[in-house]
Amino acid sequence: MRADIVIRNARVLACTGAPLIESGFVAVRDGRIAAVGPMAEAPATERNVDAEGRLLTPGLIDCHTHLVYAGSRALEFELRLSGASYEEIARAGGGIASTVTATRAASEDELLAATLARARVLLAHGVTTVEIKSGYGLDLASELKCLRAARRVGHELGIDVRTTLLAAHAVPPEFKARADAYVDLIVNEIIPAAAREKLADAVDAFCETIGFTPAQTRRVFDAARTHGLPVKLHAEQFSNQRGATLAAAFNALSADHLEYLDDEGVAAMARAGTVAVLLPGAFYCLRETTLPPIDKLRAARVPIAIATDHNPGTSPTLDAPLMMNMACTLFRLTPAEALEGFTRHAARALGLSMTHGTIEAGKQADLALWPCDSFAALCYPVGAVRPTQVFKRGSVGLAPAH
Ligand SMILES: [Zn+2]
Questions:
Q1: Distance 301 CA to ligand 1 centre (A)
Q2: Which residues contact 206 (CB under 8 A, 6 or more apart)?
Q3: Per-residue pLDDT tens for 316-369?
C-alpha cells in the first residue's frame, strides 16, 4: 500500500465503537485515511510520525458556535455578578443588543480578524471542523457579512467551516414588538439571499419565549426547505416550546440545548434521526439546574453531540476538551460518550457523517494526538488539555499554536 504518511505507535481511538487499538497506526494518502490497524500491519513509508504511545483521536468537531461577532460582554458579566437585572444590563448597554450594535458597525475584515483569532484557539484545542452561526447581524447586509467572514475563516486556516444562518436569533431593535415583520424579512429576503450566494449550509432559529414562537420558527423552516437548506434549532433551553418535535418534523440535523425536552420530543428526535447537541458551557455559565433528559436520550438511542456554543454572552469558551470534562461532570456522560459527542455525533449534526468524525479508511484524515492514554485521561483534567499535534486532511503543517 502506498501512503504519504504513517502515524505509528499510537493508541488509536477510532470513535467507531471499536475498542482502542493499544499500539496502532494510521496511514494517510491524498488527505484521506488509507488504513488503520495494529502496528504489525503498518505499511512501510518514507514519512513517519512516531506517536510515542499517545492517544490518537479523530480531530474534534465543534458543531455549535457563534464565533462571528464584535465587542465584548465582560462588563455585563461583572454587572450580573453584582446582582444587576437583565433590564439594568440592557440599559447599561449590555446584552445581545450590544453585540448586535458592535457587529453591525464592524467591517467584514474586522470580523474576520476577530473570528480567526478565536478559531485559532479552537484549533489549538484539537478542533479541525467548526460550525459557525451568524445571528448578531440581524439585518440582510450584516447577516451576509457574518456568513462571508465565517466562510473566509475556513479558507484562511485550512479547516472545514460549516456556516449556519441564524437570522432568527433575536428580534432586532428596529423591529421591537414587530417580530412577525422581522420573520417576513428573514423568510422573504435573508434566507433567499444566503441561499443564492451559497453562504449558508443550514438554517437555525432560537425557539423560546424570549426568542421566536413555534409558529414563527415553522415559517423560517418552511423557507429553508424551499431553498433546499437543512435546519437546526435552539430548542427547549429555558422552557418547553415543543421545538424539538417541530425540528424533527423538518428532519432537522440537530436540536440543541434541550434542558426542557419532553418525552414526545425525545421520541420525535429518535424517529427523525435528529442529533441532540448538549451545551455544558452555557449550562455552567447560566448556573442552570435542570438537566437535559440524558437517560431518555440514551434509551431512545438519540445520538448525543457536545459543543462549545462559543458566544460572548452565555458561553465564552473555546476549550473543547473542557466541554468534554463538563459534559461528564455536569451531565454525567461517560468519557467515551463525551468524545464521541465531539467527533462522530458532531459530524452527524453537521451532515458530515460520510467524511468526518471517525478514524476509518476513506474518511478525511483529520486527527488529533493527545498527551494522554485513554478516554478518561482526556476528559478528567479541568482545562489545560491540548493536543500535541493536529492533522488536517493528513497535513502535519497544523501544529497548534500554544
Ligand atoms: Zn447557540
A1: 23
A2: 135, 166, 168, 169, 170, 212, 234
A3: 999 999 999 999 999 999 999 999 999 999 999 999 999 999 999 999 999 999
